[in-house]
Amino acid sequence: MREMVLPPPRGDSERLIDRRRLMARRLGGLGQTLISGDIDAALASLAPGAPMLGLYALVPEGAHALRIGRLSALIVTPAPLIGRSEERPSFDGLCANEGWRDGWCATSVDDGWAAIEISGEDAGAALMQATSADLASGSPSAAVLVFGLRGLLARTARGFRVHVEAPRLETLLAWLDGV
User: What is the CATH number of domain 1-179?
Assistant: First the structure.
């Protein structure tokens, strides 16, 4: 009945779970931009040279995109991309505006999505419980059900990363607490 006892929200702290064998930390400060339409043109315009990654692909240190579907992806950058240049400069000093242009659309979800990195000795066990996707076979799309939540799954040098809608963060953490 642990689901009846609600802990205080942890979404604002960096270390969300800090146990000896499992750690989950929120990756703050990242830029997260949803793109749709001609995603190749959008990626070339917003993050030139950034790779498009699929399911459980190893994420690079810099900008990259996680494919959601044929016409949609999440661009992840070291700093936010969307906004007025004097308020929110991007990682390369340029800023984009939200909306449609040249066959594609960009929408900032910096506050709407949470990026969580899970690491430690029990990260593998957590990942086995999190999804039934065949990670060895991969997929062009990083979209997968993670602990029953729609998310984007990628591999990191220390473990794995999950991008979920921010309101679902506490649900994800409740699952991880049970691992």
Answer: 3.30.2130
Distance between CA 111 and CA 30 in Å, rounded?
Answer: 10
Q: How confident is the model at residue 71 (pLDDT cuts 50, 70, 90)?
A: very high
- Range 130-155 burial, b when 16+ CB lie within 10 A, else e: bbebebeeebebbbbebbebebbbbb
96 DSSP assignment: B
Looking at the chain, the whole-number percentage of residues with pLDDT higher than 90 is 58
Q: What is the DSSP letter of 126?
A: H
Per domain, the residue ranges of the chain are 1-179
Residue 11 pLDDT > 60, yes or no? Answer: no
How far, CA to CA in Å, does 141 sit from each of 19, 39, 47, 112? Answer: 31, 13, 19, 20
Query: Quick check: 95 and 89 in contact, CB under 8 A?
Result: yes
pLDDT bracket for residue 51 (50, 70, 90) = very high
Is residue 176 within 8 Å of residue 158, measured between CB atoms?
no
CA distance 127 to 60: 20
pTM score, two decimals?
0.86
User: At 60, is the secondary structure helix, strand, or coil?
Assistant: coil
6: pLDDT confidence band, cut at 50, 70 and 90? low
